[in-house]
Design a protein that fits this description.
The chain contains five helices and 22 strands. The chain is mainly beta. The protein has a domain at 1-61. The strands form three sheets. The protein has an 18-stranded antiparallel beta barrel. The protein has a two-stranded antiparallel sheet with strand order 1-7. It has a two-stranded antiparallel sheet with strand order 16-17. The protein starts with 5 loop residues before the first helix and ends with a strand.
């Protein structure tokens, strides 16, 4: 579900006002959100929070039964000091921009069809956007898919932003970083146990002879939520490539392990292993880990390769004696994480990491959220970012360079202290969102002793409307 209400829903979950319908998984499905909202007790939330619960429930509830169609139309204007989506990594020239689009949703029994094209002139200046930029406007599909949703199975094909891992930040291998690549996804199981799969083709690259190198990524996850407060996920990822190579069925088989298939078939693959965990409570604890490459033996030159991994640790809950919520997390991605001896086998889609788009960094963030008025959400933030000179887009170092390659925070480390606040407001058909703050940067651009103070901010006003009707 991509909707204006998502920041408000995440606040209610963080504050313990409503249950998380899909722990360690995003996006939400509309029916899952409605069930969670129906369970919210009006006596356990503030008046402002109850007002937004009622508003969201009214917005999402389908009025028609049987085959139905819904069209959501939106148009907006915005201004920003930067063009990139993430203000912490602000880049690109800021502009006044305008956008608009229409999302068509068809409900045909268990089958859902969604097509949401939109244009946004911000894309022309975004350094991460890989599409066409030399026209007056630029556009893409925010979502475009067909999904068959049964009681114990979901089948999906199309494009949709996904995130595996704690919802407070981007997942380590699957997130909304790459602008929603087209993919096939499968989920089989119950509300307590699920087997999930994700498969996509990454963009082709060209080798030294000019031949096109085909690249693919497959991920499997075993997700379990036993009775109680715990939720776990164990997952693996495989990135494979080759001239004329097709996606072998043994990697596409979601009932097996790609890691074992690689060993048994002797095929060349970049493998990843990982876990997700969350414990729900007054203070909710969460973590995610990714293992890319760790050498146990130290007997040969290749064993000197620095460890490559990713890690997230965090907690969230309600501020005592208040209606505010807090989230605190630490995340780290080491220097060589995502890179591989075969430089084609990296989890990168048109220049964007499928999980994180940066490596060789760590980040500590404390975020608050509260609703001072109905349908108004305020989110202060303090973040410390340390960024080394490593980059997942760089070639993998040769074996001879292993002893001199730092495992973490290579070269001159740039430090950024971000002091900022964001806000969201929704009234009638209008949405207003804003974000602003200051970045205090030391060793700016990895120059020792250089400092910079950078003010960043953005504001957007959106008008929206919807129409629903039966399909004859």
């Amino acid at each position: 579900m991509s909707h204006w209400s998502v920041p408000f829903i995440e606040h209610l979950i963080t504050a313990g006002r409503m249950a998380d319908p899909t722990p360690l998984t995003r996006p939400f499905r509309t029916d899952q959100v409605l069930r969670a909202l129906d369970a919210v007790d009006s006596g356990s939330v503030t008046r402002a929070e109850w007002a937004v619960v009622r508003q969201v429930r009214s917005e999402l509830t389908r009025r028609e039964r049987g085959p139905a169609a819904r069209v959501d139309v939106h148009a907006g204007i915005a201004a920003s000091s930067h063009a990139r989506r993430d203000p912490l990594r602000a880049a690109g020239v800021g502009h006044a921009t305008f956008s608009g689009g229409a999302a068509l949703s068809l409900y045909l029994g268990p089958v859902v069809f969604v097509s949401h094209p939109y244009f946004d002139t911000r894309l022309k200046y975004d350094p991460d956007w890989y599409g066409k930029k030399d026209r007056v406007i630029a556009g893409r599909f925010d979502a475009a898919y067909i999904s068959a949703q049964f009681t114990h199975a979901d089948l999906f094909f199309g494009s949709l932003d996904r995130n595996w891992g704690p919802s407070a930040l981007q997942g380590l291998l699957l997130s909304d970083s790459p602008y929603g690549p087209d993919h096939f996804a499968l989920s089989i199981g119950t509300t307590g146990v699920k087997l999930e799969g994700f498969a996509t083709q990454l963009n082709d690259l060209t080798d030294s002879t000019g031949a096109a190198v085909h690249r693919y990524m497959v991920q499997h996850r075993f997700w379990i939520r036993p009775s109680g407060r715990w939720t776990f996920g164990l997952w693996e990822g495989s990135v494979l490539s080759g001239v004329g190579r097709q996606l072998e069925p043994w990697f596409l088989n979601f009932a097996s392990l790609g890691f074992l298939a690689q060993l048994n078939t002797g095929t060349n693959v970049n493998s990843f292993l990982g876990f997700d965990v969350q414990r729900q409570g007054k203070v909710t604890l969460f973590a995610q880990g990714l293992l890319d490459d760790i050498q146990v033996d130290k007997t040969s030159a290749t064993d000197q390769k620095p460890a490559s991994y990713g890690l997230t640790l965090g907690a969230q809950g309600r501020v005592p004696h208040s209606a505010a919520a807090w989230t605190l997390f630490y995340t780290r991605v080491t220097n060589l994480t995502y890179r591989n001896e075969d430089n084609f086998q990296t989890p990168i889609y048109f220049g964007l990491g499928t999980g994180r788009n940066f490596s060789d960094y760590d980040q500590t963030s404390l975020k608050l959220s509260f609703m001072p008025l109905p349908a108004v959400l305020v989110q202060p933030e303090i973040t410390l970012l340390r960024q080394g000179e490593g980059d997942l887009h760089l070639p993998h170092p040769p074996v001879s360079a292993y002893p001199s390659t730092p495992a973490f925070l290579a070269g001159i480390v740039e430090r950024t202290l971000r002091l900022a606040a964001g806000a969201h407001a929704a009234y009638g058909r209008w949405d207003l969102s804003a974000d602003g703050g200051v970045h205090l940067i030391s060793n700016a651009a990895h120059v020792s002793g250089a400092s910079q103070t950078r003010w960043v901010g953005s504001i957007q006003l959106t008008w929206r409307t919807k129409k629903e009707g039966r399909i004859p």
